[in-house]
Amino acid sequence: MNKTLMTAFCAASLLLGTSAVMAQDAEMAPPPPPHEEMGPRPHEFGGRHAAKMQDRLADELNLTEAQKADLQKVREENREKMKPLMEQMKELRKQMDQLRKADMESFEKVLTPEQLKVFEEIKAKRHADMKQRMEKRQKDFGKHHGPRGEKGAEMLPPPPPAE
Asked: CA torsion sign, 35 to 36 to 39 to 45?
């Protein structure tokens, strides 16, 4: 009975200690980096991907040339309507990046030199991990997001039966 009680006490202590450490790590997480550090966004690749998707969809729907022209006109009109909103978003992103940078500077001012050194190491490791994940994601992109890739297959209708 005494051994069982002692084992239960030790297990409870470990669980509580682990949750306290994890909670502290969550509170100390630095703000995300400015979006410039994360690389280009999908729309910044020049629209090649979107054009391929549009062509593929047009083929799958058997659109006529007139329909394609009408849809292109609609897209261009909507793009013109969105331009001012995109500019607003770009300005807001710049403001947010400035605030994040100021927040990080304030955060780092609170740390001791030893803590700052450890924090820089943590940031470098997280940056390297993120870069590695992004490279893997880019390498694996075609495997998972092709027209019948494992993640995209459930979103597409089944292929027509062969005749």
From this structure: positive
> pLDDT digit string (tens) for 136-158?
888 877 665 555 555 555 555 66
Single out the residue of 160, 132, 156, 161 nearest to residue 145, CA to CA: 156
Residue with tokens 């100390």: 28
Q: Which amino acid is at 70?
A: D
- Residue 34: how many other CB atoms lie within 10 Å: 16
The predicted-structure confidence for 54-106, as pLDDT tens digits, reads as follows 888 889 999 899 999 999 999 999 999 999 999 999 999 999 999 999 999 99
Written as six digits, the tokens of 89 are 């978003």
Contact (Cβ atoms closer than 8 angstroms) between residue 93 and residue 35: yes
CA distance 134 to 142: 14
What one-character DSSP code corresponds to residue 156?
Answer: S
Q: Report helix angle 65-110 to 48-61, nearest 10.
A: 140
Residue type, 82: M
